[in-house]
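The instructor's notes for this session suggest beginning with a concrete chain rather than abstract definitions. Hand out the sequence below and ask the class to guess, before any prediction is shown, which regions might be ordered.
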Amino acid sequence: MGRTTWESGRIVLPGFEFRRIHRSIVAVDAVRLTNLLNDTQRFWRGLNNTEKRDREAYVAAYEKFAWQYTSDTRGYLPTGLRELIRGGASVSGPPARVKRSAMGIPTRRTTVFTTHAGGPTLTFHRRRRTVEWTVPAAYDAVSFARNDRYGHRFFAELDVVRWTAGTGGVFSGNDSDAASAGLSDYCIDAWGPIGSATEPQHTRGFRMTDGTVVEPAGISPSA
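After discussion, reveal the predicted structure:
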C-alpha cells in the first residue's frame, strides 16, 4: 500500500559539473517543446484562409491533421500537441498561431524546473553552484518525482559527477507512516565529500576529479 512521501536537499557542485548538469536539464524540455512548437507551426502553415478565420473550420482541420499525424507515426501523438493547437481556437476570436513565447521553452537562463504546479522542483543557484531538490508531500511523491523527466535525468547526472573538496550534499525526507510513529526526517541519499563527511552510511560511491575513487559506506579511497 502506498504512502505519502517527501524529500528535499541541496547539492554543491564543482563549477564545470554545475554547468554540465544545468545544460542537461535544460535539454530535457527544450528539445521536446521545440519539437511541439515545430508541429504547431507545420499545422498552421497547412491551413487555408477560411481555416485561419473560422473556429469550426480550424477545429475540423486539426482533427484531419491529428488523424494524418497518428497514421504517419503509427498512433503516436506527442503529449500536449492537441491542447496547444485546440487552444488556438479561441471562443472569443478567430484562431491564432501558437507563439514561441507561449511555450515556456527553457533556456540557459532558466533556473527553476518543475513538471507541474505543486510538483517536484529543481532550483539552480549559479553563484553558490548549488542545486536544490524539493519534493512536496504527496502519495508516493518521491518515487514519482525520481522517475519523472527531470528527476530521472538529474539523478542519472549526479551519479557521474567528478567531485572536488567541499562539494556534495544530502537529501532528507520521510513518509507518513514513519512520521506518524514519531520519526523525524532522515537521510535518504548523500553524494560527494560533503555526504561522505556527514552521512557516510548513505553516501553513494563517487570519484574525485583527480581520479580517486571513494567506495560506498565510507570505505577508504583507492586510486
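Then share the key points. The chain has two domains: 4-30+107-218, 32-102. Helices lie at 15-45, 49-53, 55-72, 81-87, 141-147, 149-158, 176-180, 192-198.
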